[in-house]
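Handout for the seminar on molecular recognition.
Each group receives one record of this type.
Step one: identify the two inputs.
Step two: read the structure output and locate the region that could contact pyridoxal-5'-phosphate.
Step three: write two sentences on what you found, then compare them with the reference statements printed after the record.
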Amino acid sequence: MELESLYQQIILDHYKRKVGYGINHGGHPSHQYNPTCGDEINLQVLLSADGSTIDGIEWEGTGCSISQASASMLAAESKGMTIDEFEKFAGGFREAMRSRGEIVLDEEEYGDLASLSGVSKFVARVKCAMLAWVAAEDSVTLTRGSLN
Amino acid sequence: MFSHEDSERIRGAFPELRERVNGVPLVYLDTAATALRPAGPVEHESTFALTRTAAVNRGAHTLAAEATEAYDDARATIAKFIDARPSDLVFTSNATESINLVALAFRLASAVGAPERFALKAGEEIVVTESEHHANLIPWQEVAKATGATLRIAPVTDGGVLTVGAVESVLTERTKVVALPAVSNVLGIVNPFREIADAAHRVGALVVLDACQAAPHMALDVTATGADFIAFSAHKMYGPTGIGALWGSASVLAEMPTVLTGGSMITRVDYDSADYLPAPAKFEPGTPRLTQAIGWADSIRFLDDIGMDRVAEHESSLGAVLYRLVSAVDGVHVLGTNVGVERVGLVSFAVDGVHPHDVGQYLDSKGIAVRVGHHCAQPLHKRLGVDSSTRISLGVHSTLAEVEFAVDALARVRGFFGVA
Ligand SMILES: Cc1ncc(COP(=O)(O)O)c(C=O)c1O
């Protein structure tokens, strides 16, 4: 498989830029760990007061370019989404990652994240791409739980 | 190093080396994780399975008798390889199980306070090292938890060196067991296990030697190691998965409590009690791993035909070149020193600005198979100031050309990821 289909330039850019890096607000972070490679992420989704909209995502962690770029892009793309939109968005991303190259993410809808479509052909790397998303979904659940 | 002719002959035995990965020839540099398999032993194992499968140690028919004989012969071959008596070699699933067997024996003995050498109580101590694979750490954490004993960790230097003095610094008259690797699977440094075993014995402790990364790469004489127990796995020795061994000195095995029980390990059985066979049978209940033992013995013959002294010389010489070339790459930092130590052909390293997973992916695109991650040694990586690393490990089939090819590719990794 072509290495370039995995590592698009935009991924390497996000790996360096890291949108949303640094946890600066109180919230409900989720800590996720990938035991096979030791990668870690601590990520929190900041919600509006009524819990309906994503105000932003903050994260810290160590990991490969795929896991870090995925977190960075997620932070960039999900800002302003309603929870319903986010759940659908995350579901679609997960489905594409598990598709072994069958599903290519739509650039209109997924923006920079569409560049991660190639990851699904590298089965060993799907977990890397998903790490931030698992943390985000968990953090949303934790945050909404605290509002009830 | 092996001559070109010898090398070609050895490489010819491994069909996997003729495979292509991503359209390029495979360069297999991950023997420390699992070794490739030579064709001869696999073919023999399969012929045996197809023509000689029968129950070992049961029944009077011809095939059963032959299977029993072949199984005993396999044990004898593997025992001889490490200068041991067959009766002191216990088959297990892998080195992890071997170590667990000893650890569980400590827990069982501790629960009833006997036999004394295996019984731990609060205030007594277990010693392991900072360079442990999880397989030789977590079982001892569990023993400490179950018995109230204290787990003490012998430090390594920043260069990964385990000195006799460092182990002595945590030894006391309360130490009852010392567990250590013969060779760390991250550092590749050969530890002074004989001197450490002697020091441990001076305080009356039993010594458990994890020889996973030593047995495939050097001649081992169990008595000369000074250890009471030695654990190793077939799949790192060009043999099958699913089988490993625990060697123990005869007197210690005789005292060691049985852990698993059932058929094949008994003499007399009544409804309320049973008498057990001596080692190794008392540690091997149930139907044994017949084909795996046959396959392992054949892989041992394969190594013996080359000669372990020659294997050690080839791999350590090539390993020294590997160490030198990898450390010379810009932005690459090798874990563990090469000064004043003996090493096997194994080098782990960090690449500035590039995560090991990405390093491994880049190398894989050139057909180069390496290990990335923490290599089941998270505490050691933390101790050395990194989360994870990339590891190149050599085998009997490794060549200078492969090492140079891999280092060449490694030198291009930082450029590819735009951090050079
Ligand atoms: C030093 C060391 N100890 C223990 C083990 C565990 O071996 P196995 O997984 O075959 O039980 C390994 C291999 O991963 C190792 O390298």
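Reference statements: DSSP finds six helices and three strands in chain A. The beta strands of chain A are 30-34, 39-47, 54-62.
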